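Sequence of Response regulator transcription factor (Propylenella binzhouense).
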Amino acid sequence: MFIIVDDRDIVTNGYASRFGREGISSTGFCPGEFRDWVETVAADDLSAVEAFILGDCQDRSAYPKLIRERSRAPVIALNENPSLERTLELFAAGVDDVVRNPVHVRELLARVGAIRRRYEAADAQAIVGEMRVFFDGRDPEIRGEILPLPRRERRILEYLVTNRNRRVSKSQIFNAIYGIFDEDVEESVVESHVSKLRKKLRQRLGYDPIDSRRYLGYCLTAP
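Predicted 3D structure, token representation.
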């Protein structure tokens, strides 16, 4: 899930809509609401946030420190009137990247992926057993062949790979894929998506790489 902060609803709603078309959950905040939320939100909910996008808003330079007290998710600032002085000020405040607004959401996804790789010293992809999983919107490969997946199933696989060898709950997957503010979708939909994903992986791999434990959640494992 992506969090967008801006004074203007047209900006937050616009980016939320564009993220939605890419199959990415997101939500927008005005500055005052965002400060209250990030200071009080439950840790499990906050762990579902993949990145924070800071648009034009008052006291923006104070937000990176506020975020870092509770999350290691990448922080990207949008700059509508770029200047060297403003860019240096934002980096000094602790943002991970500064981009000119407007920017295509696919570029934001690519930049977030690059920031994560710097954090984790990881590659642009992850290899788990015979699977190669990408984090830039491409379908995974199994034994060198592409496995076409619907967006939700692909996002679940990416989330499980990111948390491989660590068990994650149904609620954590739901929050990461649908967002913690989506009240129009039932959490049980995760079970259906995971079931379909497991069937496709089992058909290609010959085994089920997703270990499921009742009440404990799911874990991606390699043979």
